[in-house]
Amino acid sequence: MPHCTQCGTAVAPDARFCPSCGQPQAAAATPGAPPAPPATTHAGLSQNAAALLSYVLGWITGLIFLLIDKRPYVRFHAAQSLVTFGGLHIIRIVLGAIFGFGWWYYGGWGNLGLGALLLGALGLLTLVLWIVCMVKAYQGERFKVPIAGDIAEGIAGN
Fold first, then answer.
1. Which domain holds residue 67?
2. Tally of domains in the chain
3. What pLDDT digit, counting tens, does each position of 52-89 carry?
4. CA gap 70, 81 in Å, rounded
């Protein structure tokens, strides 16, 4: 029995789409028939574009795509965005409170010292992780951030 190239679910030999994820199946193509369209949402977004967009505004777009998109690949990336960037946002707020300045304030004498160094390193880590996650999601790779990826799988139900 053939299996879906996207999610691995068993599909009928004459199936045009995977019953689990909606991925078009190449085996069902008949000669002379137009190619099947890629899997899309109601808005016309491909899976990869929707997964990329779930990272664009951090945990905010992660939450939006987690609520509106039901495809497993997109839900995983949306949940990972929510967990990763939501967690980093909370850590940034806590560090700002501990060291006496908020995440919105970067001026004055309070910026000197360990607090500024930690917040700067956290900001750089967030930027690099944000770019890597968006690139991997658009390439169709199920990249898991070490701790957040496992939590995201539980949230997304994958």
1. 41-156
2. 2
3. 999 999 889 989 988 998 888 899 999 999 999 999 99
4. 16
